[in-house]
Amino acid sequence: MSRTEPLKDLVEIKSGGTPSKQRSEYWGGDIPWVSAKDMKSSYLDDAEDHLTTLGAENGTKVANGGEILILVRGMTLHNDVPICMLSKPMAFNQDVKSLSPKNIDSRFLFHALKAAKPELLRRVDAAGHGTGRLGAEQIKSLPIPRFGHQQELDIAATLGALDDKIEVNRKTAATLEEMARALYRSWFVDFDPVHAKAAGRAPAHMNAATAALFPDSFGEDGLPEGWEIVSADQELNISIGKTPPRKQPQHFTSSNEGVPWLSIKDMGACGVFTGPTSEGLTDEAVKGFRVAIAPAGTVLLSFKLTVGRVCIASQDICTNEAIAHMKPQADSAFGSAFLFCALKGYDYDSLASTSSIATAVNSKTIKAMPLVRPTEALTRAFEAEAAPWMDKVALLAKENQTIANLRDTLLPRLMSGEMRVGEAKEQVEAVA
């Protein structure tokens, strides 16, 4: 059994902040500014918002690459404690703290903190803050296991090999997704091949057979000749998820039991394809409350509160009532790759008739939402091009889940001293 030291003896802790939103000179620079919404990956290389150097100097702190960020406030803490390692300097807001390691390897500390998540979650619950909070003392007193320096480096390298493989797969999947979405934009949003043919040029990056499928002119509606706008329910079978009564907890199961039940939060954590869900439903609940099951391959769209999250069901799955299930009709040329790209790049603000899209969009709106319908031959040509990329994304997602399961199995055993590094290395080398 290893000895432990309190976290306060191993790190320098810094608090973040939010520069004034009224000062435009503080925002739009090159320094990533991390908030809870950015902390979905173990390794951060960017954030949604960015600060200028002036902004970073007025109202926040900057953590260096290799430092660790931990979320300390927010409802997320009732289910998870996001912990991320930075690949480069980043600023962060007041709901996040940075941990700068001293006298301990940064990578080892990162994995030790990940192993300590159950204890951190217990401390969140014990504090009794409804919004979710980890106080300074709750963080500082967290016990961190210590081994000899070399053993800590070996543990970090062993677990890091799994994280590295997951990250490589994630980036490869992101590239493939962007390839599919870029092709969709070129063909069906920007109409690049049609503009090329209208100008007397051969469309770029495609063979003659595919180029022949595109028209060389536009109609009065601005669409390429032969294309049209249709409502979603003309091409798709659309159903809506459901939540059994929360007052009857017997209907709900843990994430690895029953029928997987997807929430908007789960959608925020997954990539192109659905991953593990936070909860499941019993078979009795699904039948008794007539909860719709979305077959594998169904495209899922969130349309309440958080509008516009899109993913593809990797298995038969249920969802809550804020998520629409979209399955092409039997005679439709739409495929899951085509539909995913169409919905992922959709302008959902165009659906709102009021100032708040979160309250304006409902299931009726979703069923009536306008979609571009090219010719059947072109739609199938796109699917033939993009589907293999999406299939590869699905395989990478499954591989990452297998690797993550192995990592999560090895992590507590290595940190407790129950397993030797050499034994763990053998299992890691088999997959990474």
Summarize the structure.
This protein is α+β, with helices and mostly antiparallel strands and 432 residues long. It has 15 helices and 21 strands.
How many alpha or pi helices? 15
Overall shape: globular
Instruction: Kindly report the average pLDDT value.
Output: 93
Radius of gyration: 24 Å
Structural class: alpha+beta
Which quaternary structure do these chains form?
single chain
CATH class term of the largest domain: Alpha Beta
Could you give the distance between the termini?
28 Å
Biggest pleated sheet: 5 strands, mixed
Q: Name the CATH superfamily assignment of the largest domain.
A: DNA methylase specificity domains
CATH architecture of the largest domain: Alpha-Beta Complex
Could you characterize what this model shows?
Helices cover 39% and strands 19% of the residues. It folds into 3 domains: 3-146, DNA methylase specificity domains (Adenine-n6-DNA-methyltransferase TaqI, Chain A, domain 2), CATH 3.90.220; 149-222 and 374-432; 228-373, Adenine-n6-DNA-methyltransferase TaqI, Chain A, domain 2 (Alpha-Beta Complex). α2 (106-115) crosses α14 (376-416) and α5 runs antiparallel to α14. With 432 residues, it is α+β, with helices and mostly antiparallel strands. The strands form 6 sheets. A 5-stranded mixed β-sheet has the order 2-10-7-8-4, covered by helices on one side. The protein has a 4-stranded mixed β-sheet with strand order 5-3-9-6. The protein is globular, with a radius of gyration of 24 Å.
